[in-house]
């Protein structure tokens, strides 16, 4: 046993410096908390062990939300991407989403530098082995080398490191992602503290050398022509973009997989962890959808200064020799040199219903967990949780009220509520279909939804907030103008309408009503009735969306209204569900486990039916809670 | 939702000449105004609180008058529930009262659950704890019954139809979701507005068909059409009398029908029964002879439920067997009456003839067995095995209201699609339709969409 020594006292300790950890640490520090960040390997801060990309449907909106709240991910990817695309541009505004291909190395460097430049952060290389628990509260951590760090609150963002095991074919060894040291002491310690742990699995495809790819046999996938950015703060845009490439598997690939299935870790029974359905291995895809003649393979450069290319779509735990054969069967990759083999990784995750919506554990006070350790998958999901855990841990350290985003505020709210209310039986990924108010949770209005919160908790600067308020005023003024201004059926108007195949006007029409016609855009209105001054694009965009889809937005807002009423019905913390007669036993068990904070949350627990909710309401209203714990 | 506007018939069925339909909630005035036509275009929303107003309830789309009413307007919080309350006093008996209720449900009110007005009164601090205990019992009882109804209906045609419609919608939803969440995925056709319109139109027409059955549907409005048959002197009129007297007649005379068809309406443990052709039973006691008559056959054919009465003190006759023959394939309950007299009936043979149909022994003279009979009727109904003749069994006000809402949302979806609204917004209404239909069969789990997504399409990187 190493001799322990006191190594410092902080407000907040963050264990881990992946995508959850960096947001947690930066948020806490920027809110004024003296923050310690510990990571097993300082060279791996904000490392992307899987695909070199940030964003996409739902996830891209999370990045916007992180940015509006004052987080870092959007700002860093804006500086370090090799390509950006807006997805779903042909669809409605609610589902548009930005995705960037990252330069992995630059991303890490920028993130590490940002942390190093943050005066309130101490960044150290250390492996945490145990937590210091006093009277059910976490008061610090102990490193493998015996260093004792103390803090008011602690956040664990261990990713897939907890008892990580890498599997390639019939080879299995103890390891974190990308051959990093796994964290075994801490995993044992968490089990010892009595946390419910599940075993999850995820995987990654091989990387190949770009110089050995025959791109002429693939299709080019360029970035958008227009400059794009995640962050509302970004003013400089990268114009020099690198393309990705598309190719396909074929019958030969599938035959190789079929013939070698017995050597796959997934099918030989070596992997016990549950994998995500939305990130299946190629062997999974071939087995489950055996009538599909081909699967898409995207070739994604891992950066500007590396030849490594990520083979998206070929995630696998087949043995290395089979992986070679698979690659060779794919057009463009016949001669590809595999630089790293794909692998599956199994790891410990905490059953997330053991967390409050602040991401504090119910079992141990002042201890928070965020990211993949909570059973999620994806950098964005991790970052969103990290940010919220960082905010809440810092606020707890300062004795301030907690901050919980509602399902109607943000995808981050949906994510955390799903986790802590329903749990998950596979690595959880955000999908737009998980958000019942997705029309309100758009890419374009993340700032309108969240900037006030970000400012109030001290993460958004005065300057940024002033800019935001200026934008808001412009939007409101322009909407009011269009609702008042009459567009006359003069020649110019009729010609323009005829041009775009819109019906002619009989009388004058309000600008807002004309804009509601599906074929009319804000630009048309601008031609007929320009605003006093030229408006920034994002103001015009807001005006168009808010007017055009007013009816649908209104409908969603009405639903949110109902949700809010239910959210305002709070459940007292010490409620004794055993004392409430009439609640069905399954519901009682679930309520006892989840301990929902509000009636709204309670009603989302599977197995709790409306009658149970009614009974619960009656009891709460009556104050007839027989036993309050601690009395 | 806990805090929406609710409506229900607040007076017990069949007691008194006036029935009251009550509305409570934020939207109570607005909803009532949509169907109420007062003197001089008076709006209930703008009249003083605690006043009563004469007028008519109309079908808003056609302005057809449904009922002449007096409407009480009471603004919260000085009301029973402390919410805005409207009470509509109707005179027209079961049929029109139900029509009034249906109109309100169509306009956006939700059918109140048993005890819900009281529950709200309590939640809003209006009543005390002892009353609250009673509310809890009501809630629990309601769930148990709803559960058994739901269970029964799982096998019912309605449930199957609703499930297949939901599946239809789910597939559209999944396809749209895949288009959104996996925009680069090349294996799935892009769902277009015209495809969406086409598929939604199919769902709409199915919903309309279902609703038509509910509109003609007998059970809610008219009760289960019930015929008592049996040889003379087996106790048919005693049976009728005991059902009527124990449960009180709702309507004693149906105007406009011929003299010899008098229909008695009774409410047996929540199941509305329309006892048909009872005049014939009363007057002639010779239904057996009349079985051969075309009209009687027709009565039998149209019946939803037949009560076949046998005499415990006599052997099974050829006529009895003919009766069994006549009711073959229908829903019937066998009643072995006169158990107070010595047995001559071969019970085993009766059981064989009755097959899986319920069999109840009674002595109507000694008032024995009536409870069991009522229980048998109620359980038949709530188990969903009774089938109203109008094909699918949409009888329940809650279901009808939900179907109306589902129809409305699908119409909004189609309207949106025709307007050229983006697919993912039309999706919002479509999804709402799916959820509402899910409420009918008690399944609104969101996970099923995600399951559909991943079972239907090969996704992921």
Would you kindly provide a written description of the structure presented here, covering whatever features stand out?
The complex is a heterodimer of chains A (631) and B (461). With 631 residues, chain A is α+β, with helices and mostly antiparallel strands. In chain A, strands 1, 2, 6, 7, 8, 9 and 20 form a seven-stranded mixed beta sheet that branches. A six-stranded antiparallel beta sheet of chain A has the order 14-15-16-17-13-18, with no helix packed on it. In chain A, strands 11-10-19-12 form a four-stranded antiparallel beta sheet, with no helix packed on it. In chain A, helix 13 (462-484) crosses helix 17. The longest helix of chain A is centred in the C-terminal third of the chain and has 23 residues, at 462-484. Chain B is an alpha/beta fold and 461 residues long. Helices cover 49% and strands 16% of the residues of chain B. Chain B is built from 17 helices and 13 strands. In chain B, helix 5 (157-181) crosses helix 17, helix 6 (193-216) packs antiparallel against helix 15 (397-419) and helix 15 packs antiparallel against helix 16. The two termini of chain B are 39 Å apart.
Largest sheet of chain B: 7 strands, mixed
Within CATH, the superfamily of the largest domain in chain B carries the name P-loop containing nucleotide triphosphate hydrolases
**Low-confidence stretches of chain A at least 5 residues in length (pLDDT < 50)?**
624-631
Quaternary arrangement of the chains shown? heterodimer
Strand content of chain A: 15-25%
Computed structural class of chain B: alpha/beta
What is the CATH topology of the largest domain in chain B? Rossmann fold
Radius of gyration of chain B: 26 Å
Please outline the major beta sheet of chain A. Answer: 7 strands, mixed
The total strand number of chain B stands at 13
Distance between the termini of chain B: 39 Å
User: Whole-number average pLDDT of chain A?
Assistant: 93
